[in-house]
Amino acid sequence: MSTEELKDLKSNKIVDARGTACPGPLLAAKKAIGEIASSEIMEIYSSEEGTKNDIPKWCQKMNHEFLGIVEEDSYSRLFVKKA
Amino acid sequence: MMGTEFEQQIVELRKQVTQLKEGTKDQLSMVVFSGDMDKVLAALIIATGAAAYDMKVKLFFTFWAISALRDRDKIVKGKKLIEKMFGMMLPKGASRLKLSKMNMGGMGTSMIKGIMKKNKVASLDEMLKTAGELGIEINICEMSMNLMGFRKEEMIDYPGLTVCGVATFLSDAQESKIQLFI
Fold first, then answer.
1. Are A29 and B48 within 8 A, CB to CB?
2. Phi/psi of residue B134, each to 5°?
3. For residues B13 and B44, what is the distance between their CA atoms, to the nearest angstrom?
4. In this predicted model, what pLDDT tens digit does every residue of B20-40 receive, in sequence order?
5. Which member of A49, A66, B45, B57 has the greatest number of CB atoms within 10 A?
6. Helices assigned H by DSSP within B53-123
7. Is B133 on the interface with A (CB under 8 A)?
8. What's the mean pLDDT when you consider all of chain B?
9. Residue pLDDT tens, chain A, 83 long
10. Does position B56 have pLDDT exceeding 90, yes or no?
11. What's the whole-model pTM score?
12. Does the structure show a pLDDT above 70 at B1?
């Protein structure tokens, strides 16, 4: 998905993991994905560079769809569609 | 005659297929041997990460790592002199573990703890709590626990904490996709 499309996307859940270090964002994502239904969208905020590599890999393994990343000033927003 | 031979082959094949299936369980087995703060932290980061991957995680704490599971506030009475000595010399709990390098009489360890806090890296105590919430299994090697004069009663209140032997680790490791030794 393009950045513009992602920006217009309405997330069902926002996980703010900014400031936490590995494995904080991953654990936060794992917890929150259990709280949304299939095909719903979760958005993860992370200020960690590594999360941008970790979350797509996690999605691949868990069969969730990784939609993309929107970069903000001091953090990234990662979009995941639950399988 | 041919019929029974064929049946035997089927039985044999079934056995092998079952073994293959068991060998590919989505499970991580880890021996946590080191009692160094940095190494136990690495072990717990990998373990909780694997749990986020929905893997079943089984940790086997042995030798120096058992110190990390001691409860700072629990006192066990009726220990022998040598057991008491070991208990005094070994770190009492995860928060008392030292760095494997650059400890510098404890200075390095407290410095890194300060940096960890600043970088919002979870402490060992916090990681153990998270591990429990994620359903990570912790097994303690009975033999080394006894060698060091530790008792199960002085260990932290961890859900399902079990004392076991090498056979438990082997049967867990055998059916795990990932096996690690830290």
1. no
2. -85, 0
3. 39
4. 766 578 999 999 999 999 999
5. B57
6. 81-89, 107-118
7. no
8. 92
9. 888 899 999 999 999 999 898 899 999 999 999 999 999 999 999 998 889 999 998 999 899 999 999 999 999 999 999 99
10. yes
11. 0.83
12. no
Q: What is the CATH number of the domain that holds A10?
A: 3.30.110.40
How many domains, in total, are found in chain B? 1
Does residue B9 sit within a domain? Answer: no
Number of domains within chain A: 1
For tokens 């991957």, what's the residue? Answer: B53
CA-wise closest residue to B180 among B168, B164, B169:
B169
d(CA B113, CA B99): 10
Distance from CA of A35 to the nearest CA of B (A): 14
Q: Is A24 on the interface with B (CB under 8 A)?
A: yes
CA dihedral A14, A20, A21, A23 (to 10 degrees): -50
Asked whether B164 and B137 are in contact (CB, 8 A), the reply is no
* Tokens linked to A9: 């996307």
Determine, for residues B52 and A22 on separate chains, whether the beta-carbon distance falls below 8 Å. Answer: no
Q: Are B120 and A58 within 8 A, CB to CB? A: no
Range of the domain at A11: 3-81
Indicate whether B129 pLDDT > 60: yes
Task: With respect to residue B123, please indicate whether it lies within any of the assigned structural domains.
Answer: yes
Give pLDDT, residue A67.
96
| Tokens (6 digits) for B77 | 């009475």
Instruction: State the burial class of residue B103 (Cβ atoms within 10 Å of its Cβ: 0-12, 13-18, 19+).
Output: middle
- The predicted pLDDT at position B23 comes to 59
